[in-house]
Amino acid sequence: MLRLLGAHIVRRPWLFLVAALVLVLDALLLGADLPDRLGNGGTTDPGSQSARVQRVLEAHYPEQQPNLVLLVSVPEGAQVDDRAFAAQGAALAERLAFEKPVVGVVSYWQTGLAELRSHDGRQAVVAARIEGDEKRARAALEELAPRFRGEQGKEGEQGEKGGLTVRITGPLAVQNEIQSTVAEDLARSELIALPLTLIVLVWVFGGVLAAALPVLVGLVTVLATGAVLRVITGFTEVSVFAQNLTTALGLGLAIDYALLIVRRFREELDAGAVPGEAVLRTVRTAGRTVLFSALTVAVALAAMLVFPLYFLRSLAYAGITVVLVSALTALTVLPAVLALLGRRVDALTVRRRRRGDAPSPKGRVTELVMRRAPLVTVSVTGILLVSGLPFLNARFGTADHRQLPAASESRIAQETLREDFDDLPEGSIPVLLRTGGASSASAQATADRMAAKLSALAGVTRVESSAGTYRDGLRSEVASPADSGRRTAGYDLLTVVAEDDTAATSAAHQELVGQLREAAGSDGASVGGPAAEVVDSKAAIGRGLVPALGFILAGTLVLVFLLTGSLALPLLTIALNGLSLTAMFGAVVWVFQEGGFSGLLGFTATGDVEATLPVLMFCVAFGLSMDYGVFLVARIKEHFDRTGDHRESVLNGMRTTGGLITAAAVVLSVVFVSIGLSRITNTKMLGLGVALAVLVDALVVRTLLVPAVLALLGRHAWWAPAPLRRIHRRLGLREEPELLAPVSPQSPAGPERTSHEREPAAL
Questions:
Q1: Which of 135, 204, 384, 413 is the most exposed place for a label (fewest CB within 10 A)?
Q2: Closest Cα partner for 307 from 38, 682, 624, 42?
Q3: What is the pLDDT of residues 523-576, one digit of tens each?
Q4: Cα-flanking dihedrals φ and ψ of residue 401, to 5°?
Q5: CA separation for the pair 30, 227 (Å, rounded)
């Protein structure tokens, strides 16, 4: 397949380039509105108990599930109860209630509820719900916000000073601000990453033209993947974080593959091949490595499809797409450009590059490591294991307003609600009791028993029901008019207020959810709320971990076995890849959960980690580690097949790919660090965490640990049982014999050494 592809590219390079140009132009048009079609949710299990409760609450109890909060302030020295401001506040709430997508408006001036008034009496709350799915609700908010935000006149109209001041917050506003901030940060990260990447590549290649080619492949990949994601949004939800992943992997992997292709092409030219022959050899050798690498990375990312959370599933769609598109672009567009450029690929040189048999720093390091293999293996393994110990204390939660920058409107207003208002605990937990066709008296009695039972649990302050308020197993207050709507459509809603008044998803609230479910489950009640969503999400992730890991391990074992014919090497690759991720996971807990460097990095530590992010980071980082592992193992295997000398094969593999892996890791880390400069904490965690994993893998694991362990194993590294060796002889991929001889009559005459018989040119 690769031989035929290379031949077609050499004969018709312009055809491939014109086709690529047409596809890129189409992709630009198709993917133009992608940011508007992405979502910011997907971290909950849609089939869970909490999700079922949430759907009932949205349908029948909108006033109990506000997603929009107006924090209303009066001027200094005034009170929200002053007649003039009370009239303005009531008018503001009435105006909001007349907006078409808004339901369940509740305000201090309508109800007189003390919990909707601040301690100092200068602020009050108007709460409501914007109906519709995530995209429609967000669009409605963007339309409403300018009319309600800021200074309001005496008649409730915007413009006249001295009236009410409105700040907008609530779950919907927080999500919308996170999404818009992510989009802005992504555009900024691209402006940072592209020029820095080009600078690194100029230094790597020593020439401007050669350095521009990987960037070209990366841009084509990102644009094409954006168009594919736009199509996917027509069938399923796609997370806004898919754009970050597309940019990072699109630029990173495409540049990695382009580095491999361009380097091999220059090696073939240095070995005496004419440009057409060099393209053929490159596609058939480096192209095979690119295909295997893309498949291994895609397998790691595809494991996220096991989980029911659309956040992870959509990132799997994005990741698989970007990997395959980057490989396709590197195997078609780039060789076509190289076929046209030929030896002009070295034009615009800014420094001389190492050629031929020049000494390799990586080779010297590898020789030293292999001589001290036991010491290097034990010390590096110990350091990596110790660096991962903080992850044993990981606590999992979900994103909230603290993800936003400290100066954001939604975050400031949300923190004001927590600090200046009583009886607005973030941790109130809804319990839904299904009454079905029961009589009113029977349903009331059941609700009373349940409310009394739950109010007696440790950690519960009170339970509010349609009958009144219960404390310590007894009713302390009779029902108010605001409680009359708690029974509707065959359900009775109980609201459990927890003693712990910290974040709604704290460990204490999650523990309380378990107690409530144990106490209420026998009576057919369901528990929902933010803490329950976290509990259910962790359970869904826990159920999917074994199948996901099994899928990754099985896929990796099969692919690396087909590449090498060894059983030991796939097992070693998996073990070392996993070891390379320990520093990333340790840093995630120490930095982002516990707050190490939080001041320097500019974020607020929340005391927990978003439950879905470690899964995403594992799949991405493991896939990228496999990317570099395939680069190295493929070259070692190539040399071992020719010489049968294990030690020399390892040295040769490190000499020929060590610089490539280091350069690729630097470029990829630049891309992920630029993503990590985001103002959103989770995006910062993703970018900086994966950048750390990439650098540790390339500079520590591949440079030190891999050659040390291979030196200890010796020829046992190539061991496989006899049945597997027979399978590999039939199905495995090996270097084609004709690759060792000239493939074109245009090749130079005489005993010219091929690129496989000398140390290839350095980057």
A1: 135
A2: 42
A3: 778 888 888 888 999 899 999 999 999 999 998 888 888 888 888 888 998 899
A4: -65, -20
A5: 5
